[in-house]
């Protein structure tokens, strides 16, 4: 299953890269011919998207490297780092370039518009190519949501895979940007004024800024260390609590260390009548059951502890608050 997901993710990124390169070149030619600021902004947008696909391909390749002595939990978080660079690139290059084009047009520094028909044709072709890429990203994202029994929007909000999400957001922004550019061309053609074209460029810049913010926020949370999905966390809690050898689940810590890779650390108060060998066998069995029940479980650490340890309770209290701490007392 994981291999199929990786192949689908790679296909999504490669399709987006091929589409963006062709679209960027076509938009550049159209921008030079028409003199449209919004078309130039969209050309810059497509070049930025092409660079971003290279970042995402790098993320896919580097995050799949196996664990080693310096990185015992693997390189899964590399995907978050390169995806964060995508967000930075979208704003630092795409959005700012669109703002510059829009302000220049409003100040009357742009060239006179000519041959708008060429611009319309290029935008129409670009829309078709972008829609093909968007459809692939949408299908992949929807399939992942179904596999997790989540709604589409809920999956986008909670997913730990920023790759397909980045492509989906980029392609959605590209389709919307094409619509803005077409409106800019049309208003310039009808009114003879570059104001509408400049406003369209500014709208493209604002849209890219929003996309950069949303992607940046997602990758910030993942890089800082986000816990497992609530349903997975609750399932693990039930499984450990209901184990016959366990008297009390004292603490449960989880953290994403990569896409579909969750680190699990649990402190358990075992039945005092158990011997050391019994506890060891129980830990080994619970480790296997967690891996079998949840494919995203990467490593499991189980620590036997007394539930009435005051120092441990204070640490749990500091992390979660009094209600949960009281429950573990």
TrEMBL record:
Cation efflux protein transmembrane domain residues: 13-223
Keywords for the protein's UniProt record, in alphabetical order: Membrane, Signal, Transmembrane, Transmembrane helix, Transport
Presence of keyword Transport: yes
Segments passing through the bilayer: 81-105, 117-138, 167-186, 198-216
Molecular function as annotated in GO: monoatomic cation transmembrane transporter activity
Record membrane topology: Multi-pass membrane protein
Domain of life: Bacteria
Pfam families: Cation_efflux
GO biological process: zinc ion transport
Chief localization: membrane
One annotated Gene Ontology cellular component of this protein: membrane
Tagged with keyword Transmembrane: yes
Cellular compartment(s): Membrane
Protein name: Cation diffusion facilitator transporter
């Amino acid at each position: 299953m994981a291999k199929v997901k990786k192949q689908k993710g790679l296909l999504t990124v490669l399709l987006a890269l091929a589409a963006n390169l062709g679209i960027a070149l076509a938009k550049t030619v159209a921008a030079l011919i028409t003199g449209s600021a919004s078309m130039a902004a969209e050309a810059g947008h497509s070049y930025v998207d092409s660079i971003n696909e290279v970042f995402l391909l790098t993320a896919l390749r580097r995050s799949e490297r196996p664990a080693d002595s310096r990185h015992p939990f693997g390189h899964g978080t590399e995907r978050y780092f390169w995806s964060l660079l995508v967000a930075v690139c979208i704003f630092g290059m795409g959005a700012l370039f669109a703002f510059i084009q829009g302000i220049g047009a409003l100040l009357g520094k742009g060239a006179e518009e000519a041959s708008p028909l060429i611009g319309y044709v290029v935008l129409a072709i670009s829309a078709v190519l972008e829609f093909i890429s968007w459809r692939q990203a949408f299908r992949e994202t929807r399939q992942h949501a179904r596999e997790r029994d989540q709604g589409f929007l809920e999956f986008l909000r909670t997913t730990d895979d920023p790759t397909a999400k980045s492509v989906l957001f980029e392609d959605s922004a590209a389709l919307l940007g094409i619509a803005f550019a077409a409106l800019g061309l049309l208003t310039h053609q009808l009114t003879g004024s570059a104001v509408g074209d400049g406003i369209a460029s500014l709208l493209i810049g604002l849209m890219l800024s929003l996309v950069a913010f949303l992607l940046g926020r997602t990758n910030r949370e993942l890089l800082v260390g986000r816990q497992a999905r609530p349903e997975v966390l609750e399932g693990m809690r039930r499984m450990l609590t209901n184990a016959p050898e366990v008297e009390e689940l004292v603490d449960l810590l989880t953290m994403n260390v990569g896409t579909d890779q969750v680190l699990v650390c649990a402190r358990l108060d075992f039945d005092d009548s158990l011997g050391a060998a019994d506890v060891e066998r129980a830990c080994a069995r619970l480790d296997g059951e967690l891996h079998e029940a949840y494919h995203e479980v990467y490593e499991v650490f189980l620590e036997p502890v007394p539930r009435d340890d005051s120092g441990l309770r204070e640490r749990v209290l500091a992390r979660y608050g009094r209600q949960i701490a009281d429950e573990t007392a």
